[in-house]
Structure to design on (485 residues):
């Protein structure tokens, strides 16, 4: 036998010995590396922030629409307020009501018709209509109504609930590739062997075909039990609990159940805090930073997470010893390339942005609602008591009486909102506590304690604390509004 033949036989024998030495992981062998993924899964499965319900802006919008109708289309308003024929007036072509309402306002017009119909109780909107139907609104009323419509439209355009729904869908896609969650065996089976799906960080380094597609795929690469890698607790949690079958890679069966066990082991209790954009962003950033630096594996193989041998030429086959590894290999990439490869990371970052945007949008809505309430109060006073409001000297060029009232209302509303869920602070600030006997509740402005700038600065007479009226002998304008409303 030639020397080269001896060498070849020796090499083959050595290779076979190395392959024979490959073995299943022991219990917990991969738990150190899976814990990183588990932390990300924990954040991604956390409940989303809860948005408190806000009063609908529809009623305020109807008030503004009523004023606009009385000003720009009084004939249309007469037809809308005609109980028996209102809807036919709105629907019939070329009637004044139809011409006005068909410009995207049909639903609003019909709602007004319903509220103004014969026999309706003397609600706020009915009182305003009665005050406006025999005379055109003044210019200040028209301007405030326009501002009210703008404010309600701006508040309605903010969609915090929609943003949270989008965040939930993105989190589910990051977890298991489906917006509604609940991936099936077929969704998670992939194509090719375990090493092909999970990658090979050593010989001609090749990223796994399924690596980074979802957190479920990556978790299965690290932890799944199959015919060779048959330790069910390689990552700590028992992937075969509740009767989950072992996996045959590329064949549907067992994937969804094993993933469900891993996800459950990583999930927070229901009582834990909600997901935050900051947490999702930080966890994703740490992962994307650590992977290229080989911080998530025991040997130096950038782009890898999981247990690796010194020369894992067999790829991420889920085993240890010889040339094996129980890992995920994303490729020797970083930055934008890595984000593009790890699709679940980009989904998490987008979800984080949507969560933050939803919270900001709700805060903007709350602020807008304070302005809307103040505008509505001023408009109501001007419509129902125009003859009762005395002239108040302006505090500066171009500052109207209603402008002097609106600003303090907004300031007081913002002050009161700071005392939400604090009954004592709310009452001490002379705000109106809406929580009854509870220690938590809404804190809203008490209009009787709001002064207008002009009279407050003037500081003279019985009504110096606010805009006074002839009819109500020195009471605040808002007191009169309450008395008439």
């Amino acid at each position: 036998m030639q020397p080269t033949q001896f060498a070849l036989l020796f090499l083959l024998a050595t290779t076979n010995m190395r392959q024979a030495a490959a073995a299943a992981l022991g219990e917990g062998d991969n738990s150190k590396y899976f814990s990183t993924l588990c932390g990300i899964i924990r954040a991604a499965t956390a409940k989303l922030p809860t948005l408190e319900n806000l009063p609908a802006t529809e009623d305020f919008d109807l008030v503004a629409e009523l004023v606009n109708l009385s000003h720009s289309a009084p004939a249309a308003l007469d037809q809308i307020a005609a109980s028996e024929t209102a809807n036919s007036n709105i629907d019939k072509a070329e009637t004044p009501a139809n011409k006005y309402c068909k410009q995207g306002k049909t639903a609003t017009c019909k709602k007004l018709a319903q509220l103004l119909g014969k026999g309706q109780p003397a609600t706020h909107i009915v009182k305003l209509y009665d005050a406006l139907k025999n005379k055109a609104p003044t210019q200040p009323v028209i301007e405030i109504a326009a501002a009210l419509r703008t404010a309600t439209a701006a508040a309605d355009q903010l969609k915090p609930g929609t943003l949270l729904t989008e965040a939930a869908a993105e989190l589910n896609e990051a977890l298991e590739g489906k917006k509604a969650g609940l991936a099936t065996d077929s969704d998670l089976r992939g194509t090719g062997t375990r090493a092909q799906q999970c990658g090979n960080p050593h010989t001609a380094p090749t990223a796994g075909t399924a690596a980074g597609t979802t957190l479920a795929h990556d978790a299965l690469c690290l932890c799944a039990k199959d015919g060779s890698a048959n330790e069910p607790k390689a990552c700590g949690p028992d992937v075969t609990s509740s009767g989950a079958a072992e996996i045959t890679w590329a064949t549907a069966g067992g994937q969804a159940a094993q993933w469900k066990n891993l996800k459950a082991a990583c999930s927070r209790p229901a009582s834990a805090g909600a997901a935050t954009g900051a947490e999702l962003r930080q966890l994703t950033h740490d992962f994307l930073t650590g992977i290229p630096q080989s911080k998530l594996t025991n040997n130096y193989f950038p782009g890898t997470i999981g247990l690796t041998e010194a020369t894992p030429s067999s790829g991420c086959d889920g085993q240890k010893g010889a040339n094996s590894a129980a890992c995920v290999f994303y490729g020797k990439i970083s930055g934008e390339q890595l984000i593009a490869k790890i699709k679940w990371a980009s989904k998490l970052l987008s979800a984080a942005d949507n969560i933050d945007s939803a919270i900001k949008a709700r805060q903007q809505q709350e602020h807008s609602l304070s302005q809307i309430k103040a505008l509505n109060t001023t408009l109501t006073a001007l419509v129902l008591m125009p003859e009762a409001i005395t002239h108040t000297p302006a505090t500066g060029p171009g500052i109207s009486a209603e402008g002097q009232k609106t600003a303090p209302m907004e300031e007081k509303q913002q002050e009161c909102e700071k005392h939400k869920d604090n009954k004592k602070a709310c009452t001490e600030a002379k705000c109106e506590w809406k929580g009854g006997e509870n220690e938590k509740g809404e804190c809203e402005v008490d209009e009787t304690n709001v002064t207008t700038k002009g009279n407050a600065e003037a500081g003279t007479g019985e009504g110096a604390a606010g805009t006074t009226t002839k009819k109500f002998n020195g009471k605040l304008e808002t007191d009169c509004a309450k008395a008439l409303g």
